[in-house]
Design a protein that fits this description.
Blueprint (H helix, E strand, L loop, with lengths): L1 E3 L2 E3 L1 H6 L8 E4 L8 H14 L5 H7 L4 H10 L13 H13 L1 E4 L50 H24 L2
Antiparallel strand pairs: 1-2, 3-4
Length: 183
């Protein structure tokens, strides 16, 4: 997940963009594997007992959270980032623990429009294309490749790989068909 001046981005968000609607709530867990609420709360209580004068965001940093993110999580919970661990009220500690376990909620305002689209969705149904040659099963001599096909892969190069592979097949078999037609 990337934070931009306009909102969230990055591979995970791009993958979700085909499914989300305005007002959906996305929850981002910034520290994977922190366990359940009770286990994390007990861990934080032990850390606070050992380091009561330490700023609470530094305790979160000790969990692997970047300092700026730890401060942002505290700010999201309405807590000053410089609060000392021992001064953190129980209800605030529990609210932060809940955010860490369940994820920080972000309400979807909308997705970027066509002008910023990175991939397309929809296209020629794969059932209408011979997967060995990429030739149309409806119109002889018509070949398809890339995002004209109804292929919707996850971010990470899958759509590019599909475009390259189908382009190779379509080109190869279109050339063969063209050579076969020459007198």
């Amino acid at each position: 997940v990337l934070f931009t001046h306009r909102g969230l981005s990055g591979p995970a968000v791009l993958d979700l963009s085909r499914e989300v609607e305005p007002n959906d709530v996305l929850r981002v867990i910034f520290i994977p594997g922190v366990g359940n609420f009770t286990a994390l709360e007990k861990f934080l209580i032990r850390k606070i007992a050992v380091h009561p004068r330490q700023a609470f965001h530094n305790l979160l940093h000790g969990l692997g959270t970047p300092r700026a993110l730890a401060k942002a999580i505290l700010a999201f919970s309405g807590t000053p980032s410089d609060v000392r661990a021992a001064e953190l009220p129980r209800d605030v500690r529990r609210a932060v623990t809940k955010l860490l376990v369940e994820g920080v909620p972000f309400t979807v305002a909308g997705v970027a429009g066509w002008e910023e689209a990175m991939v397309t969705r929809g296209g020629v149904a794969l059932s209408q294309v011979d997967p060995k040659t990429m030739e149309s099963r409806v119109v002889s001599g018509l070949f398809f490749a890339g995002e004209i096909l109804d292929v919707d892969g996850e971010s990470g190069g899958y759509n590019l790989q599909a475009a390259f592979s189908t382009g190779f097949l379509a080109g190869r078999f279109a050339a063969r068909k063209a050579r076969a037609r020459k007198p």
